[in-house]
Amino acid sequence: MTGAVDLPIWAAVPVALLLLVGAALTLIGSIGLLRLRSFYERVHAPTLGSSLGVGCVLLASMLFFSVLQTRLVVHEVLIGLFVVATTPVTLMLLARAALYRDRQEGSDQVPRRQER
């Protein structure tokens, strides 16, 4: 990054903190993926980690490039909207497919259907 040297300290500190927080949240989600036992528990942790982690990284990117280019850079908002919209939908589709499969196989680890 050639322009990183020109970044003032008042912007460099929040950018660095946002990047560290984003990386930490993503790491926590990844560790949750490894540590949790069942599929239904595993699918939840990386979803939160990726959404919140990517959000912090995108905020850092917006701040970094807005300060360097002396204009508001909001391209990352579109990326953030796509991540926030697609991650929960993917989680829901994966969980429903696994629930359907487990119910068809007669697994006792899934909740029973409620009669209407």
TrEMBL record:
Transmembrane portions of the chain: 12-34, 46-65, 77-99
Entry coiled-coil feature ranges: none
Key words of the record: Membrane, Transmembrane, Transmembrane helix
Domain of life: Bacteria
InterPro entries according to UniProt: PhaG_MnhG_YufB (IPR005133)
This protein's name: Cation:proton antiporter
Organism: Plastoroseomonas hellenica
